[in-house]
């Protein structure tokens, strides 16, 4: 019976009506087949917005449910493994920084982040909190909500639970922003909500704060509010460094479209909001404020990077890895800039945002498991294809398990159990290949715009704000693409069998 239903539904995939919200079950074979588990593809009434169960509300509910499952997955550590100092937190793959840093960074002792020096006996040598200011504020607020007194283990449990509740709000904000960024594609946010890597890594660290702020910034940009977008992007950068990278794609896209006023507003808003958060701490606790940046520079080759594979295989500590990584990022950004200017059609903002953050991730000296959160919403907005997204997520889950089993192996003494170095290197390679695969299909969509699923309904750049539908001011598309574009716009521009004359550079219209 199931196969008959599949056969009757999958051929019904069609180009969506521009007047209707996109139904993923009509555009994506994996989504259509997966919907059979829940009664088949969505009907029209599921997207009309006339019922309380709108797409956004359903996506939020799913995200909260998956987040709760991720909390349940941490239960073995919550009960004992975080506090026994044993490798069981790695064996159960439920490690989290949150309870450890509650005591290790002075929150349990009521020390003020950045201002108070942390005693070496509790910090292991870290004199100040090594996180950006807004993340430090988030951590401090959670400590205020954690009752004093009682056993330290119990206080750590409450601190983790408080943080988990605050991060759950960030996850809800994240999926709402993704659902609303592409107005006609709210169901794409279901990919974010169902991402297994989000459930597994959401409560390892505090990255979801920056991820939610970045998603809100992209939503504001899509609604043609560049100043608000810049303010949110500056706040996101005050919580984590990577959101700053999104200004690069905006710069190149605004260059091609000639939208300098919008970019200036976004840049100004980002700078002002970042300074508003950082200046007070920078002025009053300079040494503590600088710790995040000095630690990032001084940190050696660490877990998850291809630099670690090279170091372990060659025995070279690669002390200059930071310089090498910066050179690779610079070269990669130059290539993305060239791709943007040479593409036959101006790339979408989400596509370039994903590529530049993925470039930073694969070339960085370290890849912590929770860094996948940076890429999940960008990947969904850049390439909302279930097959590609699930392939990449499978690779990330394999890496998530690989790092914990490797730490279990290295920390188990003579009684070795877990994953040896060679196995962990394979897990790193799987993570890198999965990310590079997703980058490759995004680049293909840029070079062959008709393959881009977001543009199949005639859209230009739903997340592009002022860039959406704007004509090019500067572009250098290859000659063959210029001929194709000219023939599509004016079928009589050339005789049959003879390609029309190419347009002048910069004359393409997105």
Automatic annotation (TrEMBL):
Q: Where is this region: Disordered?
A: 1-29, 456-475, 483-510
Cell location: Cell membrane
Kindly give the membrane topology term recorded for this protein: Multi-pass membrane protein
Keywords, alphabetical = Cell membrane, Membrane, Transferase, Transmembrane, Transmembrane helix
Q: Which residues cross the membrane?
A: 52-72, 158-179, 191-221, 227-255, 262-285, 323-341, 353-377, 389-407
In the UniProt record, the signal sequence range is none
A Pfam family annotated for this chain is GT87
* Entry similarity comment: Belongs to the glycosyltransferase 87 family.
Protein's name in the database: Glycosyltransferase family 87 protein
| UniProt organism field | Streptomyces desertarenae
């Amino acid at each position: 019976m199931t196969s008959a239903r599949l056969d009757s539904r999958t051929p019904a995939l069609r180009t969506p009506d521009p007047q209707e919200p996109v139904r993923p079950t009509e555009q994506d074979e994996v989504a259509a087949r997966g919907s059979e588990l829940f009664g088949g593809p969505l009907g029209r009434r599921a997207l009309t917005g006339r019922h309380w169960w709108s797409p956004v509300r359903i996506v939020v509910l799913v995200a909260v449910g998956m987040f709760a499952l991720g909390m349940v997955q941490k239960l073995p550590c919550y009960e004992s493994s975080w506090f026994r100092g044993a490798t069981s937190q790695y064996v159960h793959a439920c490690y989290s920084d949150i309870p450890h840093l509650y005591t290790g960074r002075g929150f349990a002792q009521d020390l003020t982040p950045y201002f108070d020096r942390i005693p070496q006996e509790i910090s292991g040598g870290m004199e100040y909190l090594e996180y950006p200011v807004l993340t430090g504020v988030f951590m401090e607020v959670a400590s205020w909500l954690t009752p004093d007194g009682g056993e330290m283990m119990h206080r750590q449990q409450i601190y983790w639970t408080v943080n988990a509740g605050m991060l759950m709000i960030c996850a809800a904000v994240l999926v709402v922003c993704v659902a609303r960024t592409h107005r006609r594609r709210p169901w794409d946010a279901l990919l974010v909500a169902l991402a297994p890597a989000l459930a597994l890594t959401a409560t390892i660290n505090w990255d979801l704060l920056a991820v939610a702020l970045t998603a809100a910034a992209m939503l504001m940009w899509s609604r043609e509010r560049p100043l608000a977008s810049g303010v949110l992007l500056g706040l996101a950068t005050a919580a984590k460094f990577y959101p700053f990278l999104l200004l690069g794609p905006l710069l190149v896209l605004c260059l091609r479209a000639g939208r300098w006023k919008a970019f200036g507003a976004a840049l100004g808003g980002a700078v002002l909001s970042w300074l508003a958060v950082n200046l007070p701490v920078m002025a009053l606790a300079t040494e503590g404020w600088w710790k995040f940046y000095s630690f990032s520079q001084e940190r050696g080759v660490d877990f998850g990077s291809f630099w670690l594979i090279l170091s372990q295989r060659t025995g070279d500590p690669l002390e200059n890895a930071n310089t090498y990584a910066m050179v690779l990022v610079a070269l990669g950004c130059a290539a993305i800039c060239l791709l943007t200017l040479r593409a036959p059609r101006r790339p979408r903002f989400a596509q370039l945002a994903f590529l530049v953050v993925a470039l930073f991730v694969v070339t960085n000296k370290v890849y912590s498991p929770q860094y996948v959160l940076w890429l999940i919403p960008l990947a969904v907005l850049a390439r909302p294809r279930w097959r590609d997204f699930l392939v990449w997520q499978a690779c990330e889950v394999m890496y998530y398990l690989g790092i914990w089993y490797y730490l279990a192996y290295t920390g188990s003494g003579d009684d070795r159990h877990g994953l040896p170095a060679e196995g962990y290197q394979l897990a790193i390679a799987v993570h890198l290949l999965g990310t590079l695969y997703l980058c490759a299909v995004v680049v293909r969509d840029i070079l062959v715009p008709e393959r881009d699923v977001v543009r199949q309904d005639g859209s230009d750049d739903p997340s592009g704000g002022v860039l959406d539908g704007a004509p090019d001011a500067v572009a250098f598309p290859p000659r063959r693409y210029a001929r194709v574009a000219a023939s599509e716009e004016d079928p009589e521009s050339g005789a049959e069998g003879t390609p029309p004359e190419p347009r002048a550079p910069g004359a393409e219209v997105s």
